[in-house]
Amino acid sequence: MSLVRCVGATRNLVGECPIWEAERQQLYWTDINGMGVCRLDLRSGRVDTWKFPAPVSALVRTSNSGWLLVATGLQLLLWDVETDKRAPFLEVEDAKLGNRLNEGAADPDGNFWVGTMRNNVAPDGSGIDVDWEKPENRSGSLYRVSPAGTLTRVSSGWAIPNTMLWSPDRKTMYTGDSIDNVLYAYDYRGGSVFSRRVFTQGFGRGIPDGSAMDEEGCVWNCRYFGNCLVRFDPAGTVDRVIEMPVSNITSCAFGGDDLRTLFVTTASLGSRDVSLAGALFALDPGVRGISDNLFRTG
């Protein structure tokens, strides 16, 4: 395993949701509080950025080449990167509820799963303090969005829903709640989930944020406030801990040649780290990842 290296000195406020575009050898990710999307071209090392009018929390590739589904504010947009055309797709919740979208990902059947949470981003990108002990702030829900735009609320009562990924055999879906320091596993079949149980809970460093799945069925989980990545085996047991040079580790994705590089996003907001907080990092974990699912468009 190689050392952790910085591959993008972006200083994102809250970098999140990296996704790999193999054909173009490019990595996309969001800056939630920076209200933007970043793209690293692995061949040239160039980083491009695009701005949006609201926090951008999630991205997913679609079956329409060159288009991404973007979660921003409470809205889903279809975005043609090359022309910067942005087409409204779906409003997930009423703004009066005081929430925003958070993490999202496509399932093996082409649906998009996304969570909502109490909005903690001010209009200027600064953070809003939320008292997570108050029951009214557990206002988040987990939704499934079909390719046709049908919205289904799967569950409610979430604080900060994070991590959405599927096992290599497509039989298990994982997600979690950062505030509860828990990752759950569900039986997954045909776009639906059943039998929620605790996958892992209470790991002592930071709180769980985004994750990536490797070909051995292990979950690589980023630990916000925890200075590390944790690899959990399929039984939910800690397999290894990767130390990171900054504290707020937000999400990760496999990419590069043969999906053997793990890219890691971080956050500078509220961090005491001076130079590298909010940067994009990479490491060679010694195992391949699996390809992300696509949101199926018409």
Automatic annotation (TrEMBL):
SMP-30/Gluconolactonase/LRE-like region domain sequence ranges: 14-267
Q: Which cofactor does it need?
A: Zn(2+)
Instruction: Tell me the active site.
Output: D209
Q: Where does a divalent metal cation bind?
A: E16, N162, D209
What GO molecular function annotation could you give as one example from this UniProt entry? Answer: calcium ion binding
**The record's free-text note on cofactor binding:** Binds 1 divalent metal cation per subunit.
GO terms classed as biological process: L-ascorbic acid biosynthetic process
The UniProt record lists the keyword Zinc:
yes
What PANTHER family does UniProt report for this protein, alphabetically? REGUCALCIN
Q: What is this protein called?
A: Gluconolactonase
